[in-house]
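note to self: dont lose this again. the chain is below, predicted strucutre after it. 204 aa total, dont forget to put it in the shared folder this time
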Amino acid sequence: MDSAKALVSEAVKQLRDKNADNNEERVSIAIPLLRKACALYELEGAYREAAITHQMIAMHAYSINAPCVSAKEHADAARLFSRLPDGPALAIAAWKESCRIYEAERRWSSAAQQCVRIAEMAHRNNLCDEAISAYEKAALLHKQDNNPGTAALYTEKAMWLNVDTGRLDKASVEFKQVMEVYTANYIGTEQKTSTTTTAGGHKL
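---
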């Protein structure tokens, strides 16, 4: 762990370097050092330290207008926080920040992926409200990304959680939304497969 700490110390020194021309130069030198520290921390099983270092990278990447790099680092931090006994809340918060940044950048699919991770973590930890909300947001983001089939999949997951928690009115609305998509897809598939061509070239 001492090697990782030394790398972090060197990165902090670079970030405070008054001789660098600008913040972007300082950050571009510091980030590779911090990434090496993350890898070492993770190898040593120091998941909390690795996660916090990923968050440092995320903060500084955002400061130099690299939002998608920042979002990925928040997601990496969440993955590591999720391995800690007290990590679920920290992981969910980090995934939410990753989602927020991806959404602001109109990276709908990447934002939705973070929502699914939130939902799965919340469900495993009996945080049903959080899980339902995250699945519903994942569905909305996939709709925004013109992916109704995947949106329906996550709406269905939210629906079953609403059933489990007795929110039958909400589940009923989501059931109708899911069936509309599945029915439309089924009819479209049937229309394609029902048209065949004879040897003479006539469509049946």
